[in-house]
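FAQ
Q: What does a multi-component entry look like?
A: The components come first, one per line:
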Amino acid sequence: MKKIFLIGLAAILFIACEQKAERYSTSGPEVDLVKALLADYEKGDWDSWTEKYADTAKVYYNQWDDSITVAQSLEGHKSTIALLSSYGFGEDVIYEKIISDGGNTWINFWGRWEGTLKENNKVLVLPVHLSVRVLDGKVVQENGFWDNSIMQTALEEIEEMKNTPELEKTIMANHDKMVEAWNKNDTEAFKAITAANVIRNSNGARQANNQSEYAAMMKQFHTGFPDFKVKMESYFLKDGKSYLNWTCTGTNTGPFMDNPPTGNKMEIHGYSVWAFDSNGLAVQEDSFFDNMDMLSQLGYTLTPPKAN
Amino acid sequence: MKKILLICLATTFFISCKNAEPRYFSSSPEIDVAKAHIKAYNEGDWTTWMSHYDDTAKLSHNTLDESSPAEVLEALKGLLAGASSYGFTDKDIFYEMVIDDKAEKWVNFWGTWEGTIAANNQKLIIPVHLTAQYVDGKIVEEHAYYDLSEYMAVMQQIESEMVEEEEVMEE
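Then the predicted structure of the entire assembly, as tokens:
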């Protein structure tokens, strides 16, 4: 009798134990099924992909109430993929299997989707969460969560670009090249996008009258700050002029304007108005920033004038 | 002898069972914090909302970039500025906690955000998923997934209507 009791006890404990342990795991056939589903998606093997869903499977992307069918979901995926030259989830993904209070098996997935738009080679990165219910080896429900506005905004940008006059497109492209030329201290690249007699005014004072003088000024910053970087924060174009906010950073480890290095870091924010000619070449920059702020960050101090 | 064997067997199961601590929870102190967190958000009680985060918490909403709770709060306030009412509804709301392979506690939340845009009284329904890691009852890492495309479309529409109105007035 005791023996039976003990065997019974052991069996109960074993079952209870198994049930407890199985409500969360990161492996198992259901996880493998969803992994294979995503592999099919990445390969575009849509027959194999479709087979993994039950016929009556319901798909909910960014909504709870109105489900779509697997066929509709496939159509959606294909129309998005048609816009892309590459897409997929990298290696950095998380899968988990849980058994809900209702006894249902769900596979939760978190991943980083990356796609490149054919039209302009822009790379889009979307964090994606999928919650997939698996029953008898098939997906019966899929809930997806991600921010579709990232894709929508990128597509709107492409549309806008199509309606943008050629000159504006050239100016926008030269804008990006200007930032690159500044960051790389690339005189040749700078000369290619500016007029020979390009002017720079800094806080209202003339600083450069031609490409060579402008390039010499760029060099001065790179000598003083070998890690010098400029970032374009925002800009808008109007009537052949661009109005832009920028941020410059760097560490003063080289001589700057005939002064020895201070070793200090600086971060300054400024504003520039760039004028372009009818070919999209930059002809003038009016730059405004707080010079005192930059010098203070470098450790310079202001001495008040001696009283008369 | 058999008896000893059986006792040993039972003990082994008992110990292994003890070791197999539960890793899935539909209620826990962390879930209670998560519920209080959603309540504070609904009520706009940002002091309480902020108090649920660790000072060094890293938040990523619809991005891989990390922000501080204060930065996310500022962004959320910006999103909510145009809403006359908002909040998570009681419908389609799920909380669960898991202890992952790294022994980290993660609370997963699925909910329905409902809001009304003040300018045109348009109602928006946005499903939201949050997954947050808790240490000592505080959120140290949070990832959020929600679709802002409908919200952006409404905002763009309002903006273009305003521009049209201005143009009409100028004429």
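Q: Is there any commentary attached?
A: Sometimes. For this entry: The mean pLDDT of chain A is 91.
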